[in-house]
Design goal:
Helix content: 10-25%
Largest sheet: 6 strands, antiparallel
Number of strands: 27
Length: 418
C-alpha cells in the first residue's frame, strides 16, 4: 500500500456548479482539470490541452464510448496511458483507460477539461467496434484516430449511443477502482465542499481570484480520511449503478414529513431507486410531489417566499441575475431528508437555507435558489446534489459492504458563509 490517503484540493471556479481537481496525463504529464462526479463512472478528457500525438505512453484500443448526462453528453475512443495525481508523492497509474472526447454537446464540461466519474462499473460501458473498423478501406486497427463523424448536439450523440449497442459490450474499470485495485489507496473517498455555485463577491474578479476564495475551495480525499465515523450518520447504498439510496421522506421544519414516492416500476431496471447522491449536480432536484410539498409549506409560512422563488426562476430562465436586497435567509426553514440507514432505520440529513439559497452566486449580490422540480422525462427519482453534500463531510465508504455506505459527519470546514 503506497499511502493510506491522498488529499487533493478541489475548486468550484472552473466547473461552474461542479468541483474540479487536477490530473496529469501521458508522457508529457499534461495538466487537466476534471470535474468530480459521483453520478457517472467514466474518465473523459477533451482535446483542448491533451494532444495524443505527443504522448509516448499512449496505446490504442478498439473501444468506443458515448455518454449522455442530464445536461450534455459526448462520444469518443478509449485509449490507455499514464495518469498522475496532483499530489506530492507523484502517484501514477500506468496504462490506465481514458475516453477522448471527439464529439461533445456544447458546454458538457463547462470550463473544465473533462470529467472523473466516481460511481461503479455499471455506468462505464464501452463497445468494441472491431467489426466496423475491419469494414473500412483501408482496414483500421483502432478507434483512435476517431473514425466516426457525429454532429455536436444531444440528438446526434444519443443516436450514436444507440448505434453502439449492438457491438460487444466491455465494461471499463473506473479510475477510482483502478487506484484501489492497484493497492494505491483503500476503497474509500471523501468530499468536503462548501458551495453549489462559485462565490463571486466582487465585480471583475479574475479566475485566479475566484479560485483563491476560500468558499470556492474544498478537498477530495482518496483513501482513509482519518475522520472517525462513530458519531456520523450512515445511509446504505442500494445498487452499484449510481450511489443509489432510499429516500424515505422529506420534511420542512415545523411541518409533518411527506413520504417519498417509490421509483416508478418501469424505471426500476435502469434507475434502481428513488434517490441518488450526485456531486456533479449543483441542485437538489426533488421528485415532483416532494417539490410541491416544499412549495406548499413555504406558502403557509409566508406567501412572499413562493413569489421570491418564482421571481428567481423567471430571471434564471432568462439568463439574468436575481438580486433581492430584502431576501433574509434566516427567515427560511431547514429542510430534512430522511434516508434508509444500514438496518433500514430512518437517518435524518438537514439542509439549511444558506445551502439552498446561495449568495453572491456567479456574481456580486446575485442569489440562486438551489432546489429544483423533477426534470422533464426524468423518473420519480430525487437527485441529491451539492446542497446536501455541502452540509456535511461526505464519506463514500465502499469497503464495509459489497455496495458500500455513505457516512455524513459535521463538516471540518469552519462556517464561513456570509
Amino acid at each position: 500500500m503506497t499511502d493510506k490517503r491522498i488529499v487533493l484540493p478541489i475548486n468550484l471556479a472552473l466547473g461552474i456548479g461542479a468541483y474540479t481537481t487536477k490530473l496529469y496525463i501521458g508522457s508529457e504529464q499534461v495538466e487537466v482539470n476534471v470535474m468530480i462526479d459521483t453520478g457517472s463512472s467514466t474518465l473523459a478528457i477533451d482535446l483542448n490541452k491533451y494532444q495524443p500525438i505527443n504522448d509516448q505512453y499512449l496505446s490504442t484500443t478498439t473501444l468506443a464510448q458515448a455518454v449522455v448526462y442530464g445536461a450534455g453528453g459526448w462520444a469518443g475512443p478509449v485509449i490507455k496511458t499514464h495518469i498522475g495525481l496532483n499530489h506530492s508523492q507523484s502517484i501514477q497509474l500506468y496504462n490506465a483507460p481514458i475516453a477522448l472526447v471527439s464529439a461533445s454537446q456544447q458546454h458538457s464540461f463547462q470550463q473544465a477539461d473533462g470529467i472523473w466519474g466516481m460511481a461503479y462499473h455499471h455506468l462505464n460501458k464501452s463497445y468494441d467496434v472491431s467489426a466496423y473498423l475491419k469494414q473500412q478501406s483501408p482496414t483500421l486497427a483502432a478507434s483512435y484516430p476517431w473514425p466516426f463523424t457525429i454532429e455536436k448536439n444531444a440528438t446526434a450523440i444519443k443516436a450514436f449511443k444507440k448505434y453502439l449497442r449492438p457491438f460487444p459490450e466491455q465494461d471499463i474499470t473506473p479510475l477510482f477502482d483502478d487506484f484501489e485495485e492497484h493497492e494505491v489507496v483503500p476503497n474509500q473517498f471523501t468530499l468536503i465542499t462548501q458551495r453549489s455555485v462559485e462565490y463571486i463577491p466582487h465585480q471583475g474578479m479574475s479566475l485566479a481570484e475566484i479560485e483563491s476564495e476560500p468558499l470556492n475551495q474544498g478537498q477530495f480525499i482518496i483513501g482513509d480520511t482519518g475522520i472517525s465515523t462513530e458519531q456520523s450518520k450512515t445511509i446504505k447504498v442500494l445498487h452499484d449503478a449510481y450511489y443509489n439510496t432510499h429516500l424515505i421522506s422529506v420534511a420542512v421544519d415545523g411541518f409533518p414529513a411527506c413520504k417519498a414516492p417509490p421509483l416508478d416500476a418501469k424505471h426500476l431496471n435502469s434507475f434502481f431507486s428513488n434517490s441518488i447522491i450526485d456531486s456533479g449536480c449543483s441542485f437538489l432536484v426533488l421528485q415532483q410531489q416532494l417539490y410541491q410539498y416544499v412549495v406548499n409549506c413555504l406558502q403557509q409560512i409566508d406567501a412572499s417566499f413562493v413569489s421570491t422563488i418564482e421571481a428567481f426562476k423567471q430571471a434564471f430562465q432568462q439568463g439574468k441575475d436575481y438580486q433581492n436586497a430584502l431576501l433574509d435567509i434566516d427567515l427560511w426553514p431547514d429542510l430534512t431528508l430522511n434516508f434508509a440507514g444500514p438496518r433500514d432505520e430512518p437517518v435524518a440529513l438537514t439542509i439549511s437555507a444558506k445551502q439552498y439559497w446561495q449568495s453572491h452566486a456567479k456574481g456580486p449580490n446575485n442569489w440562486m435558489f438551489m432546489i429544483m422540480n423533477q426534470l422533464p422525462q426524468w423518473p420519480d427519482q430525487t437527485l441529491c446534489g451539492l446542497p446536501l453534500i455541502n452540509s456535511y463531510t461526505c464519506i463514500f465508504d465502499r469497503s464495509n459492504t459489497r455496495l458500500g455506505q455513505i457516512h455524513w459527519t459535521q463538516s471540518t470546514y469552519d462556517d464561513q458563509s456570509p
